[in-house]
Amino acid sequence: MSRLGTPFLDRNEHHPLEDYLRMDRIPHIWCPTCGLGTALNCMLHAIKKSGIPRQNIAVVSGIGCSGRAAGYVNLDSFHTTHGRAIPFATGLKLANPKLKVVLFSGDGDLIAIGGNHLIHAARRNIDLTVIGINNFNYAMTGGQFGPTTPEKARMTTAPYGSFEHPFNVPFLVDSCGATYVARWTALHVRHLTNSILEALHHKGFSFIEVISPCSTVYARRNRLGDGLDLLKYYHENSEIRNGINTRKCDITFQGRLIVGKFVDKEKPTYSDTMTKSLSEALGDRYVPYQGPMQGKNGD
Amino acid sequence: MKSNTPAVLTGAHYWDGDFACAEGAIAVGCRFFAGYPITPSTEVAERIALRFPLIGGVFVQMEDELGSMAAILGAAWAGTKSMTVTSGPGFSLMQENIGLGAMTETPCIVVNVQRGGPSTGLPTLTGQQDMMQARWGSHGDYEIIALSPSSPQECFDLTITCFNLSEKYRVPVLLMMDECVGHMTEKVVVPALGKIKVQHRRWYRGAKEKYRPYVPAKDGVPPMVKTGDDYRFHITGLTHDQRGYPVINPACQKQCVGRLVRKIKDNADKIIILKEEETEDADVIVVSYGISYRVATKAIADARKKGVKVGSLRLITVWPFPEKRIVELAKKTKCLVMPEINQGQVYLALERCAKGMCKTKLVPHYGGWVHDPNDILKAIIEGAR
């Protein structure tokens, strides 16, 4: 029997996350050894463990390899435009504050084209959980360098090696006001799942960077071997430093990777400060937002 | 409710167009606003920022217009009527997400208080130069609805109409104001709450497990659900099937985009609002919209004094273009005259529909100020010959 003809899963077996995946959309489009499946798996395990009712969770993604995640989760999910996952999620969250809005998107989407929204969402401390997959390049378009590509890495638009200084993402979001910041690699599945779980229960802007292997373009163009070799690199070079000053989290080409939970603090969220400030200013005249229109009946 | 400030300020007011627009939005039930300051639209945002906390709305000032447009789409999917307001440069920045709104069939409204362009152009002076951008400013094939008010009263009334059309046809609707109308102060009468016609969201009422986001009703428009009601739907800007799942092939493009276009084109007669005056036996008909209509009325009155039989067709709805009516009028009149504060944008559609059956005359004007009525008068007289 042809391998192509075999179903993805044995009919009698069930994927443990079947309730959280659109099984009619599986298999996904991601390459073998890509870290996106692992990160999505961690996210869904965390959602499952969180006890948050499934209907109260919405997933928003932008464009790129990671952007496709929204299409695979069996939750209210939005695949938006390039870079605009955060403002879309901002509107969704503010218009229905009961929702737990989770973003799953990539480095190009969140940090390059969407960078402006990222820093302002962090500044506002808006209650969003952002899972930022960093594979060091624009993979969907064939492997161009981006704002997180380590210096010297060769990409199709940096054929002689990238010479731009990359972002230290945890430092960026920390300095802008994010109240939960962590970084793990796709190898740290338990830590990552726990971090996402914490972030889901955290009130405020949380950002979890996931260093994720891209063997098809990043590793291949830099002759770093296959996906397993990248995981070995993570294994040998990751250093868990919880609470470290995010300033010290720079990533260099094939250098050591500082991972861990760096920031976990309380600060009033956008909604908190809005309600407090308007109540103080207007007293009894302040009418808080009553939530979205009611479906079905009424209007 | 503790508030003593009503949402609908029933009575007569002396408002500018920007304020009237904000009040129209509040009156029809808009409760989410995201925007970025830009002249000459800022007064709408200022009014909303002042009023929303008193009536239970969310006002958020975003970091840019791309974010503003994305945020109102998110809010619409949360189940709230949402809007943004901008002017030329901001309108350009919104285009990609207006396309997302068209593709995902998201009800919301975008107000563009037009100024002279291109680029930074004339921030404080008028223009009607974004009319063609309103039609197809985002990439790809789609149809949109755009209305153009000529007075502060209409800024109030048509903002309500825009929301109603947006809910009915599930498409971003554009209110194409211009600086003159936005900053013109006139009497605005706000009706009693019960007298305001409100098109409610077309909620899906079938079985939860049978819900597919893009199964259209008879008029081509699918009913909608909102986030958080356990429908677990998926929405994407990719070409998608009725389930909302991406399908990247020509057959699905035809089905998906075909309906986006048809739902507007097939319902054009219901969408289009025109105002006609003395067109029946007119030798010349002035076709105008926005502030240019107000200027044209002077030219029309002067022409009539000179004995020219001249009528007026005002495009309250500019897009979809009233093709049928233009064809009918072109058959029985000598000339269609169109003044626009641009070098000929909506005129292109007019000329195409007239198909040589009558003369067509563009009266162009550069941004910054309205026409001299004598220029329109001259065109009317030439047209009548």
UniProtKB/TrEMBL annotation, chain A:
<dbReference type="GO" id="GO:0045333">
    <property type="term" value="P:cellular respiration"/>
</dbReference>
<dbReference type="GO" id="GO:0030976">
    <property type="term" value="F:thiamine pyrophosphate binding"/>
</dbReference>
<feature type="domain" description="Thiamine pyrophosphate enzyme TPP-binding">
    <location>
        <begin position="63"/>
        <end position="210"/>
    </location>
</feature>
<dbReference type="InterPro" id="IPR029061">
    <property type="entry name" value="THDP-binding"/>
</dbReference>
<keyword id="KW-0560">Oxidoreductase</keyword>
<dbReference type="InterPro" id="IPR051457">
    <property type="entry name" value="2-oxoacid:Fd_oxidoreductase"/>
</dbReference>
<dbReference type="Pfam" id="PF02775">
    <property type="entry name" value="TPP_enzyme_C"/>
</dbReference>
<dbReference type="GO" id="GO:0016625">
    <property type="term" value="F:oxidoreductase activity, acting on the aldehyde or oxo group of donors, iron-sulfur protein as acceptor"/>
</dbReference>
<protein>
    <submittedName>
        <fullName>2-oxoacid:ferredoxin oxidoreductase subunit beta</fullName>
    </submittedName>
</protein>
<dbReference type="InterPro" id="IPR011766">
    <property type="entry name" value="TPP_enzyme_TPP-bd"/>
</dbReference>
TrEMBL record, chain B:
<protein>
    <submittedName>
        <fullName>2-oxoglutarate synthase subunit alpha</fullName>
        <ecNumber>1.2.7.3</ecNumber>
    </submittedName>
</protein>
<feature type="domain" description="Pyruvate flavodoxin/ferredoxin oxidoreductase pyrimidine binding">
    <location>
        <begin position="23"/>
        <end position="249"/>
    </location>
</feature>
<dbReference type="InterPro" id="IPR029061">
    <property type="entry name" value="THDP-binding"/>
</dbReference>
<feature type="domain" description="Pyruvate:ferredoxin oxidoreductase core">
    <location>
        <begin position="282"/>
        <end position="376"/>
    </location>
</feature>
<dbReference type="InterPro" id="IPR009014">
    <property type="entry name" value="Transketo_C/PFOR_II"/>
</dbReference>
<dbReference type="GO" id="GO:0047553">
    <property type="term" value="F:2-oxoglutarate synthase activity"/>
</dbReference>
<dbReference type="Pfam" id="PF01855">
    <property type="entry name" value="POR_N"/>
</dbReference>
<dbReference type="InterPro" id="IPR033412">
    <property type="entry name" value="PFOR_II"/>
</dbReference>
<keyword id="KW-0560">Oxidoreductase</keyword>
<dbReference type="Pfam" id="PF17147">
    <property type="entry name" value="PFOR_II"/>
</dbReference>
<dbReference type="InterPro" id="IPR002880">
    <property type="entry name" value="Pyrv_Fd/Flavodoxin_OxRdtase_N"/>
</dbReference>
<dbReference type="InterPro" id="IPR052368">
    <property type="entry name" value="2-oxoacid_oxidoreductase"/>
</dbReference>
